[in-house]
Amino acid sequence: MKFECPHCHEKTFNPLQKALCGSYRTMGKPCPNCGKRACNGMTGIYFQTVTSVAMIAAILVIYFKSTERIYSSIIIGCIIAGYFVLNFLFNMFFGKLVEPIRKMK
Ligand SMILES: [Zn+2]
Fold first, then answer.
1. CA 70 – ligand 1 centroid, Å
2. How far is the CA of 8 from the centre of ligand 1 (A)?
3. 104 in a domain, yes or no?
4. Contact present, 47 and 90 (Cβ < 8 Å)
């Protein structure tokens, strides 16, 4: 399973490399074939927005409903970790690689 570079259209990125390219707001990573930078497109940003809203809502509910402070902080920790894992996995397998909006100086 490989992903297409937005510049040379060769399938040069494996899922892990794709995830490490970062979101649309980052500089991205250079393609091993053509050396031009690629990053994950807008779908990653939409997914991140949805999951961060869900995460904040879940944290607030747990924080205000829970009486067990220790357990609730463990659960909140798991939710935050899950959020990062979920977004990383999303960038690995979903969305397209695009040209970063930020350019090299
Ligand atoms: Zn390329």
1. 48
2. 4
3. no
4. yes
